[in-house]
Amino acid sequence: MNREMIEKYFRKEQLPHIWCPGCGNGIALAAIVDAIDSSDLDKEKICIVSGIGCSSRASGYLNFDSIHTTHGRAIAFATGVKMANPEMNVIVITGDGDCTAIGGNHLIHACRRNIDLNVIVFNNNIYGMTGGQYSPTTPKSAKTATSRHGTVERQFDICDLSRSAGATYVARSTVYHYRHLTDMIKGAFKNKGFSIVEALTPCPVQYGRRNKLGNPPDIMKELKESVSLTDSSKIKIGVFKNESEPEYTSEYHKLVEAEVGKYE
Amino acid sequence: MSKRLLMQGNTACVEGALRAGMRFFAGYPITPSTEIAELLSIKLPKVNGKFIQMEDEISSMAAIIGASLCGLKSMTATSGPGFSLKQENIGYAAMTEVPCVIVNVMRGGPSTGLPTCVSQSDVMQSRWGTHGDHPIIVIAPVTVKDIYYMTIKAFNYAEAFRVPVVLLLDEVIAHMRECVELDEEIQIVNRKRPATKESYLPYRNEDDGVPHMADFGMGYKYHVTGLVHNEKGYPTSNPDITEKLITRLHKKIEDKASEIVLFDALNITNGGDLLISYGSSARVCKEIIFNEKVRGIGLFIPYTLWPFPEEQLIKLIKDNNIRRIFVAELNTGQLLLEIRRIVGNTCRVIGINKYNGELFTPEDITKKIEEAIE
Amino acid sequence: MSKKQIIIGGTGGQGIILSGLILAEAAVFDGKYVVQAQNYGPESRGGASRSDVIISDNEIHYPKVKNADIFLALSQEAYNKYKKYIKDDTVVILDENINADLGNYFKFNIIEFVYNNLKKPMVINIFSLGIINGLTNIVTNDSIEKAIEKNVPRGTFEINYLAYKKGYELAKTKEKRW
């Protein structure tokens, strides 16, 4: 990331970040910042909300109003922020465990409401901060700290899940495809409704090491090759849904407009 | 508004909250608190406020914290099982010093317990329900009129001290209707906001231990975290900063306890016995001391269960040579423990307890008192 | 009157709580101290439910009825469950179909009368209020009219007030005992 972006948007005293060498979270965060910079969002009215986990430390690094909340609850806090002040541009930074395990219920209901939140999930398929336990997106058979012989659980597809639950903008990219990821996030900002971007990102320390995936550049290369915009035998990246539907806070505002002043 | 009205307890809570300036409510349906959510879904839009029914109790608590950070006075309402779920984020509100009010209409427990029956068994949970050392204020009204004024008080305390305030109702007083006259003058307190963006420190120790709070969206761009944090709001594990923070969180309430505590002392006689009771149980005790004229017994009603009017009780015991105390509550003996701690060896403290889902009858209490006297 | 305690018992869904509320509100209009409380189960419909109203010239502390001065039951289940509140001089009002095993009582064909003459089962609760007040005059007619108007669903005041008057008239056919 260029120095200008760091000067403009980061809380420099909070750097360096806590992420491990080879982690992709920094790239994902840079993509968010690039997307913010090139968007027409009012920079004074951006709120970053995160949960708990490696990715969720991102809220402390960015110089906006920011809330580092409890585990899984970022979307629920963000719902309160957005409803209380619909002028806020609310960006939720979360991880796969935070968003789809402990926070899964909040995710699907925010999708259902189509509330105007921008959720960026840093999906590294593992609980990194607690030492590498399997998450809802850990691939079957992968070895983790709590599945030494390979996990027997099946994994969530975050994009399918969100689309089915009613999100109106759904996209996936990877931290290897930096430009593409930035575009996906920009698309999320443009949608007036619930937007989710799944950013696939490597965790060499907790995931790669146990599954013998090699050094960080090898893992990054593997990530690049495992996805495709077109090849259906690979993990698809791109925009899976982008539809305009009534947004929650706007709909609620109509109710308020009709009722306001009628208090007895 | 000095007209006499018939008002339900839950309605009084709603009217008090709106009068206090509450403009954001998030909740989840649960008996016996649901009337609060239902009424607010109708009334909040009329005052340009917001109501949302969340997917669960956890998210309701989270949403009111988010809304409060944007400057709206916020509230949620629940009962036992939902109160358990809210504990996680009540701790978050205590740590991040986000003003909010949590109404818990107590019903029988544990677990799903007795959903439509009265109980007072969440007293300890209201103080210690969330993990970690934390400050909290807990208020337990007795009458429908109390509920109205003490809901306003709850918001005033939440705003003044930047602390979660639990309004502890029970099924009887929440559901009963009573004639009320709402004619007292009230005072509305709002959180102190910073005067200027220059050198704003969101967690600076002001004179009274309560940092000034900026609304999100006003350009202050500050960080809020449930981790131990420094004055700037950034995470730290520095032992000195940690200790200072936890100390300040407690002292901002402890130092003002004498201004916060609310209580009544009725019919106290020198050398007599003392009944201590709160919520709906205190109504039964009032019946005994005013209408059944049981001799030589006074009544102490703590409205703030935390902070407890500790010094005031000790003084009353000393000034009146009280030797025996009865603590009447609808649980197996929760406030009883606190009273025993406070009075130590100075008095005999006897619990009068009922936990079958029904309110005390006056006889339940007088019988226990007579037994003890014999 | 210093203090009067009233129990209205019936089946969940019969509007028992509402009738207690209306009686209580009427007493407030009369300038009395009033408490109305309720006992109910988990059912929205069915099950015994009861509404307690206490009307007094002085402040009321204990919010439940200890001994009923007036006791009305619309179902056998409610009668059985709450009859323990009946004392010697309680005015007991029962639907014709209830088998009573305690002392003096007034029986009225409440449910049948409402079905046959008013054709609106939903007004059973207000009809019952008419009977209560016809026998006891516990609240003024003006106040109860105001209370009905304030609390019944919009557009149903006429039928409800008619039900009240019919109940009141029916009660006047029986011996006055207040």
TrEMBL record, chain A:
Under SUPFAM superfamilies, the record lists: Thiamin diphosphate-binding fold (THDP-binding) (SSF52518)
| InterPro entries per record | 2-oxoacid:Fd_oxidoreductase, THDP-binding, TPP_enzyme_TPP-bd
**Superkingdom of the source species:** Bacteria
Name the record gives this protein: 2-oxoacid ferredoxin oxidoreductase subunit beta
One Gene Ontology term of the biological-process aspect is:
cellular respiration
Source organism of the structure = Fervidicella metallireducens AeB
Q: Spell out the Pfam families in the cross-references.
A: TPP_enzyme_C
Q: Name one GO molecular function term.
A: thiamine pyrophosphate binding
Its organism's taxonomic lineage begins at: Bacteria, Bacillati, Bacillota, Clostridia, Eubacteriales
From TrEMBL, chain B:
Q: Name one GO molecular function term.
A: 2-oxoglutarate synthase activity
The record, for InterPro entries, names: 2-oxoacid_oxidoreductase, PFOR_II, Pyrv_Fd/Flavodoxin_OxRdtase_N, THDP-binding, Transketo_C/PFOR_II
Give the enzyme class: oxidoreductase
Pyruvate flavodoxin/ferredoxin oxidoreductase pyrimidine binding domain: residues covered = 15-239
Q: Where is the Pyruvate:ferredoxin oxidoreductase core domain?
A: 275-365
Keyword Nucleotide-binding part of the UniProt annotation: no
The alphabetized UniProt keywords are:
Oxidoreductase
Q: What is its EC number?
A: 1.2.7.3
Q: Which Pfam families match?
A: PFOR_II (PF17147), POR_N (PF01855)
Q: Which Gene3D superfamilies match?
A: 3.40.50.920, 3.40.50.970
* Protein name in UniProt: 2-oxoglutarate ferredoxin oxidoreductase subunit alpha
Q: Which organism is it from?
A: Fervidicella metallireducens AeB
From TrEMBL, chain C:
Query: What UniProt keywords apply to this chain's record, in alphabetical order?
Result: Oxidoreductase
One Pfam family linked to the record: POR
Residue spans crossing the bilayer: none
> Which branch of life, at top level?
Bacteria
Q: Where is the Pyruvate/ketoisovalerate oxidoreductase catalytic domain?
A: 12-169
Say if the entry is tagged with keyword Repeat.
no
From the UniProt record, which GO molecular function terms apply? oxidoreductase activity, acting on the aldehyde or oxo group of donors
Query: InterPro entries given for it?
Result: 2-oxoglutarate_synth_KorC, Pyrv/ketoisovalerate_OxRed_cat, Pyrv_flavodox_OxRed_cen
User: In the UniProt record, does the keyword DNA damage occur?
Assistant: no
Q: Know the name of this protein? A: Pyruvate/ketoisovalerate oxidoreductase catalytic domain-containing protein
- Provide the species name: Fervidicella metallireducens AeB
